[in-house]
């Protein structure tokens, strides 16, 4: 779902800020749940769904440090 950012926000670890002045609006493509949370918080507003996103948000990838920690501590287990 495409939204226009109206206030600074972190999306998947990426800082996204609105354009100041007369520049192009900052449009991002996010999931419906993320869009709902951003709009409820007043950080974004709905925009034309045919609009092209101006910023691409990538999913964060696990780093080598994360893999080393997972190896040391083992996989997570749920306690009952």
Structural features, described:
This protein has about 80 residues and is an alpha+beta fold. Helices cover about 25% and strands about 20% of the residues. It is built from two helices and five strands. It has helices at about 30-40, 65-75, and strands spanning about 1-5, 10, 15, 25-30, 45. The strands form two sheets. Strands 4-1-5 form a three-stranded antiparallel β-sheet, covered by helices on one side. It has a two-stranded antiparallel sheet with strand order 2-3. It starts with a strand and ends in a 7-residue tail after the last helix. The model has no long low-confidence stretch (mean pLDDT about 85).
Helix content bin: 10-25%
Number of helices: 2
Compute the CA-based radius of gyration: 17 Å
Task: Assign an overall shape.
Answer: elongated
Low-confidence stretches: none
Number of strands: 5
Q: Beta-strand level of the residues, as a percent range?
A: 15-25%
The string of secondary-structure elements, in order, is EEEEHEH
Q: Biggest sheet, in brief?
A: 3 strands, antiparallel
Report how far the terminal alpha carbons are from each other: 37 Å
Taking all residues together, what is the mean pLDDT?
A: 86
Structural class: alpha+beta
Tell me the strand order in the biggest sheet: 4-1-5
Q: What distinguishing features does this structure have?
A:
80 residues, alpha+beta, two-stranded antiparallel ribbon, 5 strands
What order do the helices and strands come in, and which of them pair?
Blueprint lengths: L1 E4 L3 E3 L2 E3 L10 E3 L2 H9 L3 E3 L17 H10 L7
Antiparallel strand pairs: 1-4, 1-5, 2-3
């Amino acid at each position: 779902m495409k939204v226009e950012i109206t206030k600074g926000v972190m999306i998947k670890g990426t800082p996204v800020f609105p354009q100041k002045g007369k520049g192009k609006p900052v449009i991002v493509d996010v999931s419906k749940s993320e869009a709902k949370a951003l709009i409820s918080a007043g950080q974004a507003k709905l925009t034309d769904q045919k609009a092209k996103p101006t910023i691409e948000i990538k999913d964060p990838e696990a780093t080598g440090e994360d893999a080393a920690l997972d190896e040391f501590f083992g996989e997570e287990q749920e306690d009952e």
